[in-house]
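User: Predict the structure for this protein chain, please.
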Amino acid sequence: MEKRYLAIDIGASSGRAILSFEKEGLLCSEEVYRFPNGPISRDGHLIWDLDKLFEEVKKGIKAAFAVCPNIRSLSIDTWGCDYVLLKGEAPVYPGYCYRDSRTESIIDEAHSRISFVELYSLTGIQFQPFNTIYQLYEDKLTGRLEGVSDFLMLPEYLSFRLTGVKKKEYTNATTTGLVGADGEFSRTITDKLGLPSHLFPKLSKPGAELGHLSQEIASQVGGDCLVRLCASHDTASAVEGVVLPSTALYLSSGTWSLLGAKVPSPITNEEARRCNFSNEGGPGYIRFQKNIMGMWVINRLKRELCPNEDFPYVIKLAKLSKSNKTVDINGPAYLAPESMRKAIEAEIGEGELGPGELFRIAFNSLAKSYAGTIKQIEDITHKSFDSLVIFGGGAKNGFLNELTERISGKRVIALPVEATSLGNLKIQMKGDKAYD
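Assistant: Here is the predicted structure, written as structure tokens:
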């Protein structure tokens, strides 16, 4: 009987359950469930509805068991940085979204305890105001850590709800800004920030077993299987899901764009810090990458300007405009504006712009950002790359791919959208063979 595996892949805008098996050396997959996702606004903050998210995970597992009653294992991946605090078995609400602004007022104080220069020398993680390190420090200052027994990244929390087992996984932990070059949480950092040491145990590698579904969950979803840790940061799984030539860079194109290269060890020199690159963990390598703006700006413009139209209409409008204008698409004005249109118009400074020009400016700006980041990688690594492998939802955007190829001078290779789930599944299969 073929071994079946289930990937639960959750992004900031949608989630999906993908059932897969290996046949004659090929990975065959089938999407069995999909659901919308997104933060909600409550009491002036952006948060995740943790209970609804968990219910969607269970629905996905139930749909998979309805298709195949014999599933070997499942694993969950999500975006990085966000987490859930626990007091014993109980979550501490709310579960904040990384786009919430709660950390803005405490970053200077955190850096007064440990400078960003020292942080980067220890972790090699780029500065982002929503990095877990700042979220946890804000929790400490506001008293949210009192009585807390654990903090689990979102995939770890959802897996805990399925199994009752708490384990922390390496690739997602590296997104926190708290993991040192030795691959474990840095006691230097946690001590200087006064964060409780018991929150930072040893890390587990991708492929490790958590345990089977609890009896209660198994009865709810109609079956039982083993739960594993994959590379639970979705970009880490996505890079595992594609074949990357040694002369190619990768671009994970979704709400965010993550552009980088696979390198053997962290690069934490002054130039890498100045250019704000990250060194995030992969299974046996480092992803030297930069987290830059992605399809978020296009999606927000579409919602604002033409919510009832499809993406081919958006592309048509952008192509009709011949504008060569750009904006600093990675600037703070575009992180979470009330109006993406007004944010772009304010920087351009020419009054009201038409929809086609707004979309064209956004696409131009993304392509220019990609080209600039590629040049920085080549300068820092002292290596030339001839191509850019794009995966994720943005890989379907042929117009943006064409602009990127033209501006960067690199050959663009667009690969399957579901790279993350493929990497999730591959790691489960490798773990299965290792533990058989």
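Residues 355-381 form the longest helix (27 residues).
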